[in-house]
Design a protein that fits this description.
Shape: globular
Helix content: 25-40%
CATH class of the largest domain: Alpha Beta
Number of domains: 2
Mean pLDDT: 88
CATH superfamily of the largest domain: SGNH hydrolase
Distance between the termini: 85 Å
Radius of gyration: 26 Å
Structural class: alpha+beta
Amino acid sequence: MHKPTHTLGFVVATSTILAAISIIFPVNGIRLTDSLSLKYPTFQELFLVEKTAKKDISGILALAAAEEKTDVTIKSDSTAETSIDSIAKLNTSLQYKDGAKSALANFFNSLSNLSNEPKSIRVLHYGDSQIEGDRISDYLRLKLQAQFGGEGPGLISFMPVAPSVINKLTWSAGWDRYTIFTGKDKRVKHNNFGALAHITRFSKYEVIADTTNYKSAWVKVVTSKNGGPKAAAYNKLKLYYGGSQTKTHIEFYENGSLNNSDSLLVGGNFNIKEFNLNQAAILHEFKFKGKDSPDFYGLSLEGGKGVMVDNMGLRGSSGTFFNQINFGQLKQFYDHLNTKLIILQFGGNTLPYITTPEQTVQFGNYLKSQILTIKKLAPQASILVIGPADMSVKVGTEYETHPQLENLRDAIKKTAFDTNCAFFDMYNCMGGKNSMVAWVDLGIGAKDYIHFSSGGARKIAVLLYSSLINDYNTYNKK
């Protein structure tokens, strides 16, 4: 018969064994292979050390909820001023070298004088997996287009890395993606990768030997209203392409009806084929036929004059690829798109490989060279640099902020100031050290303790937009 004393004895014996193992087990673990070690919690971790104190982020979440509800737009009343003060107190405001907002002057001036712009102005949001699928960018687009006009989600890829909240794409067999944002694809012998930093093709790079061998391919684009009515209200599409060795026949269908049938140009690295829509945007289909595929740089879904926000989610990228793209081609893109603001949100993919403060400084220097290149290619554009989010690593049995995260944040911030860019401290915006644990516990951070959930991304986007529009309001008053 089982007795309570038996259970107590088992618990005591087990605890004693675990304690003994924790005392004698090597602190650094037992290395099994060059890349694999067996570790065991120390006695202090198991029995003595208190768990990492949870970060209180209730004030930040309350602020995000208030800002989203307030719907900050152009206004000069006390509500906007109160929002500015609240954001500053919680370290969620944009930062500038010496406090001067001149870093965003080009963008703010363009917003103020949209009627004088020849076409829509563009905000290009480059980032890693934190923004893939149109996260964060979608809210900026929603608010800016509601306030300043403009329609459409902007540039999208024929083969997106992650599904978007607005567009769903499907494609026929044979398509492939060639990237440069995580290292140049060795199959590509040139550097014409376009503004999206990758190209797509329906045939492989090869010398055309069989002139009778035609290839057929298709891509379908379905648009929803999940990104808001403005994002789905576009009335034209622009297909960017180049590099084909032979003519490619193209047919464009909208909602199943043929809209256009034509041929794409041969050669070049910046060709545009434009399609005007006759119906409300629901389903678009492109059918291609040719002996060789062009390099497709992207498809832009656009409307009338206003603001467009392009999401450039580049999974695995550190943001150090701009110097590898053909400068002439990239400048053509930035000029044609009428780019007025470029947002750079990188650092998260670099942090796992950083072990010393010196390496964070080195990354800052890499990033600086990229920014200087961008400034030469798009002198008309302002640049906003977003620092990395809190990233947790497991220390014993607890999750704690990566030991080099604040050093990396500081290096990126210094780079932003050295190049006269605005800076948004996403780490402080979340609550600072060990805040990711709180975000995960509340379901607004992913279980990898690195990424946001969709809800968390929305809260960051709200605070970012509020900071941006408040600074625009202040700039306008002056």
